[in-house]
Amino acid sequence: MRAMEPESSDSTSHLHTNVTSPSYIPADKDTEFLQREELRSIRIGLELLKPELIQREQGIRSTIVVFGSARLQESAAAKHALNLAEEEAARAPIDSTHQHKVAIARRQLALSKYYDVAREFGRLVSSTCQIEGRCDYVIVTGGGPGIMEAANRGAADVNAKSIGLNITLPHEQHPNPYITPELSFQFRYFAIRKMHFLIRAKALVAFPGGFGTLDELFETLTLLQTGKTENVMVVLVGRDFWERLINWQLLVEEGLIGEKDLRLFQYAETAQEAWDLISRHNGVPSS
After folding, report:
1. How far apart are the C-alpha atoms of 172 and 186, rounded to whole Å?
2. How far apart are CA 97 and CA 263, in angstroms?
């Protein structure tokens, strides 16, 4: 009787490729599959849900959004940057580029006071509201350096929780070290990140900043103006800066906004003034 011939090596190879092929990976574990264009709606849903569930688990009931320039440093660092710029300018006195850098560094030093105000604001609000295990009026920032770092740092000064909502960008970005690790998030989509800024927000406090700050500020003002969101107190810190930057009255005079729209925001100069406005608006003790 003839012995049974073994299966060919080709057949054995085929059996093994069945379990090593990408098609065999379960869909929820196939990261390459999840990046396909057709899966965008799934990614958006997950990006909305993950931070929401984690914040619930962490007991976050309400937040205050703090925005401002990522480029503003605390005073010592700004002073050091000015010294370096002046040294470079002294070595090339006829180079207008260096003189321009010195002028910017001087203005950055003048604006550095807002780093201290943002830090004090984070400290004041967090020490007032995060007591007896409650997580109300938790500081939330864009997670980066500058004013965002300062606000997160103020919360960390009093061992309170704070949130950072970072975004993936073409250039490398890292969350600042003062965010509560369990509340440090990274987003792919700006739209979902913006939703998370406002989902629990009782106020938005805007410090001097650039495009990102203006984007969030005007989106919030638009949502308030159109009634898409309610009861979010908007505080602009540094009246002189904001009134030089934006001619609000021109918008009224040209009929582009109503006079009542100017009541959608208030001004403050100090951390205490900002918190007093917010606490009165929301009916909570300010200290």
Report:
1. 12
2. 42
The answer to pTM > 0.85 is: yes
Domain ranges of the chain: 61-72+113-282, 75-109
- Radius of gyration, CA atoms only, the chain: 26
Contact 167/142 with Cβ under 8 angstroms?
Answer: yes
Q: Could you give phi then psi for residue 67, rounded to 5 degrees?
A: -125, 155
Provide the pLDDT for residue 93: 84
The CATH fold of domain 61-72+113-282? Rossmann fold (3.40.50)
- 279, 273, 237: which is closest to 129 by C-alpha? 279
- The candidate with the shortest Cα–Cα distance to 275, out of 237, 239, 243, is 237
pLDDT at 176: 96
∠ Cα 183 224 276 (to 5°): 65
pLDDT greater than 80 at residue 136: yes
* Position 15, amino acid: L
Cα separation, 275 vs 270, in Å, equals: 9
Q: How far apart are CA 18 and CA 187, in angstroms?
A: 35
* Top-confidence residue, 183 or 94: 183
